[in-house]
Design goal:
Rossmann fold; two-stranded antiparallel sheet; globular
Length: about 240
């Protein structure tokens, strides 16, 4: 498997995350590259992000509206075409069969060739950051919905009644993995990533742009790439046209 995948552009991709702004941190540079090359990108935001405020005057209802608007503005910069805001409460995410069925329904609706999500096995990123529990649950659910659930006709047969036919995702790309095996050069799209992150002012200050650049520099250092996003890539189904 190659260490970089600069020529790979899937026809469609889905990003499954827990909160508005997660995708911008994880995959914005890669998504901007793919979208510019014709990939149809879908963002799936599982929770409302309705807990992320220290303002005593803020309410969960108002924050939900703010954060959805911020996510749409950020995605527009990157070329995201479709959005699914699932509306689960922030901070309380649990891996249930109901949640897996809901994500499976969305996968079958949009039929992505590549699904990108968190690596749920990485609990600790550094000595000063413990991975958010919602991130881990989102990654676990996305993986289980991808394989084998979305593929298998007899799992959640009620989805067939609603017209959601089985779908085989070709590849899974995990962000935040301790064992990445592919790196995407995001030098050409780094400024778009920074601009997208700055569209989340309810959560992020101006210094996030410098932080994103430094994280991209660190991700690419071992691969002689100036700025990169790193992933653990799994090929589940060979596609002779796009692989």
């Amino acid at each position: 498997m190659p260490s970089n995948v600069e020529d790979f552009v899937p026809p469609s991709a889905m990003v499954v995350v827990a909160h508005p702004d997660d995708a911008e941190f994880m995959v914005a540079g890669t998504i901007a590259r793919w979208a510019a090359a014709g990939c149809e990108v879908t963002y799936v935001i599982i929770t409302k992000g309705d807990k992320g405020s220290e303002d005593p005057e803020m309410t969960s209802e108002r924050l939900t509206i703010i954060r959805e608007a911020e996510q749409r503005a950020a995605g527009a910069i990157l070329g995201v075409k479709n959005y699914e805001f699932m509306g689960y409460p922030d901070g309380y995410l649990v891996h249930t069969l109901e949640l897996r069925r809901d994500v499976t329904r969305i996968i079958r609706r949009h039929r992505p060739h590549v699904l990108l999500t968190f690596d749920p096995t990485n609990r600790f990123f550094s000595d000063n950051y413990v991975n958010h529990p919602d991130h881990r649950v989102a990654g676990d659910v996305a993986l289980d919905a991808t394989f084998p659930t979305a593929r298998d006709r007899l799992t959640f047969p009620e989805l067939l009644v609603d017209g959601y036919q089985p779908w085989k995702v070709r590849q899974v790309w995990l962000s935040g993995s301790a064992e990445p095996n592919v790196w995407v050069d995001i030098g050409p799209t780094l400024e778009l990533k920074k601009k997208a992150l700055l569209k989340h002012p309810s959560q992020l200050g101006p210094d996030v742009a410098d932080f994103a650049e430094e994280m991209a520099r660190m991700a690419g250092a071992g691969q002689q790439i100036q700025h990169a996003e790193a992933f653990r890539r799994f090929i589940l189904e060979q596609d002779p046209v796009h692989e």
